[in-house]
Every structure is written in structure tokens, then in C-alpha cells.
Design goal:
The protein is of the alpha/beta class and 217 residues long. It folds into 2 domains: 91 residues, Translation factors (Elongation Factor Tu (Ef-tu), domain 3); 112 residues, Nucleotide-binding domain of ferredoxin-NADP reductase (FNR) module (Rossmann fold), CATH 3.40.50. It has 5 helices and 11 strands, in the order βββββαββαβαβαβαβ. It binds flavin-adenine dinucleotide.
Length: 217
């Protein structure tokens, strides 16, 4: 889908400095959680493009984007001031690190990377699979959805920056059935988090090369 104006249907605070935007799904748009869209915003005749990853389990009627607000950023403070009924311009979907019907998924996320991770965990559970979520963030977001997937049987670990990612990834992988090679790893977050996740996954006996990884920059 090329640049298309879509209407914001809801905007929610989902934790400290974080919002979820629900936007109307255009007729020709189909996507899975973990794919991302490009959002184009024009401010004072200047055009800004940023990418945001789908964080709802499906894109029926609406889809959700989870945005970490950077108070010093050019675009995210503007997104937090949107209201239902406003239009934003998006294109996509893009990317290759998304849910493709895997029955066992281990989600490893940092910061706003928990958006696609929770969307995929919800989708795996809805489709009858098993899942585990390891999430590192000193100010966690989407806590209600994390509690809900945990209540539905998922392993969930929410870590502070100082805690060991490899211990949690190890515990997460141990809760999933079968051979470690049967589990699809998904990793979402900014570059420094991905480095830590790679070390943790390899220390836990997982293959980072086989993981579906999205680098937020
Ligand atoms: C594939 C992909 C998927 C993504 N998915 C998500 C997602 O789902 N959720 C999400 O929240 N983010 C996601 N991102 C990141 C997102 O696209 C933006 O980069 C992010 O939201 C910051 O945008 P911004 O305009 O607010 O900040 P920017 O203006 O880009 O600034 C970022 C930081 O850099 C600083 N900075 C800017 N310019 C300078 C400069 N010249 N010198 C020094 N410092 C500077 C700012 O102060 C700010 O702290 C994704 C990125 C990619 C590539």
C-alpha cells in the first residue's frame, strides 16, 4: 500500500512515555504483527518519516501501533498529541520479522519492542500455540496485556536493565515444548538491546541467526 491517509480511532497511554494508536485498516491492507508501516508527518512544510511496528494480534478493522515517546524527538511528541478522528499517512506493510503461524514463539523485547512482542504472543495463544515473553524495560508498558497472556499460560519475565537477560531467556526457552530448534525466536528493540539479546540467546543455547529480528535503530 502506497502512502494512504488513515484515521486514528483511539489513542491510549500504555505506560510511562508510551502510547498505543489504533488506526482504521484500509481496504487493501493486510499484515501480521511484527510487520511495520512507514508513517509520514508534515510539520511546517517539513516531511518526517518514521517506522512503527504493528502491535495488535490482527489488523481486522483497525490495527495498533505502540510508540515510545522521546521528549527530545521530532515526531513522537507530535504523535502523542493526536486525537481520535485525526488522519495520519502510512504506507506498507514492510519487514520480514513477523508472525507466520508459528506454534511456539519466544519473544524477546526491549523498550517499545514489547509492542510487536505482545501482539504476536496474543496471536500465538489465540491460534492454539505456546509462547514465552522476555521483556526488558526500567519503565514497563502494556502491563495489563502481559498479565493477560501470563494468565492464559504464557511464561512472562519483565526485567529491569540491571537483571540478567540470559537467565530469563533460558527459563523462557525451557517452558516451551520440544527441541530448542522447534521454537521461533522473535527479537524487537533498539540496536543496543539487540546486542544484549544476541548474547543472551546464544548463552541459552538458541541460534540468533535463526531468530526473526527487527532493529528499531
Ligand atoms: C523497522 C523499524 C521499526 C520501528 N518500530 C517502532 C515501534 O514499533 N515503536 C517505536 O516507538 N519506535 C519504533 N521505531 C523507531 C521510530 O521509527 C523512531 O525512530 C522513534 O520513534 C524516534 O522518533 P522521533 O522522531 O521522536 O525521534 P528523533 O527525532 O528521530 O530523535 C531520536 C533521538 O535522537 C535525538 N536526536 C535527534 N537528532 C539529533 C541530533 N542531530 N543530534 C543529537 N541527537 C539527536 C533526539 O533528541 C532523540 O532523543 C522503529 C524503527 C525502525 C527502523
Amino acid at each position: 500500500m502506497d502512502n494512504t491517509a488513515v484515521t486514528v480511532t483511539a489513542i491510549r497511554e500504555v505506560g510511562p512515555n508510551a502510547i498505543a494508536l489504533d488506526v482504521e485498516t484500509p481496504a487493501d491492507f493486510d499484515a501480521a504483527p511484527g510487520q511495520f508501516v512507514k508513517l509520514v508527518l508534515t510539520v511546517d512544510d517539513e516531511e518526517y518519516s518514521r517506522f512503527y511496528t504493528i502491535s495488535s494480534p490482527t489488523v481486522e478493522e483497525t490495527f495498533e501501533l505502540t510508540v515510545g515517546i522521546d521528549p527530545g524527538g521530532d515526531v513522537t511528541p507530535l504523535l502523542s498529541s493526536l486525537s481520535p478522528g485525526d488522519d495520519i499517512v502510512v504506507s506498507g506493510p514492510y519487514g520480514n520479522a513477523y508472525y507466520e503461524g508459528e506454534t511456539q514463539g519466544c519473544l524477546v523485547a526491549g523498550g517499545p519492542g514489547i509492542g510487536p512482542a505482545i501482539g504476536i504472543a496474543e496471536r500465538i495463544l489465540a491460534d492454539g500455540g505456546t509462547t514465552a515473553v522476555v521483556y526488558r524495560d526500567d519503565e514497563p508498558i502494556h502491563e495489563d496485556r502481559l498479565a493477560a497472556v501470563e494468565a492464559d499460560g504464557a511464561f512472562v519475565a519483565v526485567l529491569e536493565e540491571s537483571e540478567s537477560l540470559s537467565t530469563a531467556v533460558n527459563s523462557a526457552l525451557a517452558t516451551l515444548e520440544g527441541d530448542i530448534g522447534d521454537v521461533q525466536l522473535f527479537v524487537y528493540g533498539f540496536a543496543a538491546f539487540l546486542d544484549d539479546a544476541m548474547t543472551a540467546i546464544e548463552a541459552a543455547g538458541g541460534e540468533y541467526d535463526r531468530a526473526k529480528v527487527e532493529n528499531f535503530g
